[in-house]
């Protein structure tokens, strides 16, 4: 089983947000991440889940 891990920079680029925003999402547990040594990585599946949750918030589905 292979899990794609994204850097904070890659997530910044995909979401077109700042580093602060990505870390805020991680701190508030809206975006799951893992720590490998001193590096923070975001599983691609976590980014997909976040975008799915965001879409449900915007469209009002799932409530």
TrEMBL record:
All copies of domain Helix-turn-helix, residue ranges: 5-51
Domain of life: Bacteria
Entry's transmembrane regions: none
InterPro entries xref list: DNA-bd_dom_put_sf (IPR009061), HTH_17 (IPR041657), SinI_DNA-bd (IPR010093)
NCBIfam families: excise (TIGR01764)
Source organism: Catenuloplanes nepalensis
Protein name: Excisionase family DNA binding protein
